[in-house]
TrEMBL record:
CDD domains linked to this entry: PBP2_Bug_TTT
Keyword Secreted annotated: no
Protein name per Swiss-Prot or TrEMBL: Tripartite tricarboxylate transporter substrate binding protein
Recorded family membership: Belongs to the UPF0065 (bug) family.
Species annotation: Leucobacter chromiireducens subsp. solipictus
Amino acid sequence: MNAPHTGTPLSPDPHASDPPTNTVRPTGRTPRHLAARLIGGAVAATVIGIASFGSISSANAGQDIQSSLTVVAPAAAGGGWDTVAREMQQAQRANGLAANVQVVNMPGAGGTIALGNMTRLEGRANTLLVGGTGLLAATIQYDSATTLDDVTPLAVLFEEYDVIVVPADSPYETLDDLVTAWRDNPGAVPWTGGGSFDQLVVTDLALAAGLDPIDTNYISSDGGGEAVAALLNGTAQAAAGGYPDNIDQIESGRLRALALVAEEPVPGIDIPTAREQGYDITLANWRMLAAPAGIDDEAVTELTGLVEDTLATPEWRAAVDRYHWSEQVITGPALAPFLANEHARITRLYEEMGA
């Protein structure tokens, strides 16, 4: 079980990448041992990333988009970015949109290792990188040398919304009940969430409620399942987490949903938004696709068309319904200002956390 901590930097989003493990120092272990382990892990991940991209570069050299396409998930298999990559692969294969579509997983540092390695494929139009809010946040959190400015963003695909939940037997019946208790004694209401994006949502709610985010008692959990367990065993009293991760527990009656973090009510989700209840928090966990830098306008147009064709397939439509994604497609001239606004917004939240 993780110990509560206050105002500490966030862990990378488990839906986006393999988060670092919270380490308990065994007897006889020194900070030097731990530092060596962490540095060794980062170096190993980077070496794996370089090797993987070397293979991609060799396989894709001289190939056009229709004959060979690689979709990179900057995370381990099974997470949210991996799901996007594999659903795209399935939709493109089933509809003949590309003859040979492969998915490559490249986890590490919230996705920034894969992002950094994309610079090795400059001008190669037949590689796509899955990213999103978590990747943008990681570039800010880690002060990454490579940012989204170093690739070619193509499209935002959809948004996934967080939900504020408490155990079913919680005394907090409404979001106001929870916020009132939290405001009265911030440290006495421990929060949890499945990753860095969820902590950003809690930070945003704290600001909307007039609390100092640094005073928040936030327990970092390794994924949505661990966050639910922390709620059910009493370690935490409230959580922010992705709606798809929590829907089963809500419908079974084990968790009570107090608010959906979305700009407006979502059809099919019978949960009032935080905004409807007077808390203007709307941070969404969006997913995007990018290509390497250095591709020409013709390639951008072709890739954008491929993405749009993929989103129109029955296979992709079924995935949108299955995972409760809220489609929000942004391409063309609207994409750059959207990303700039999100960068400013997330940077502000990190500053408020003292990270």
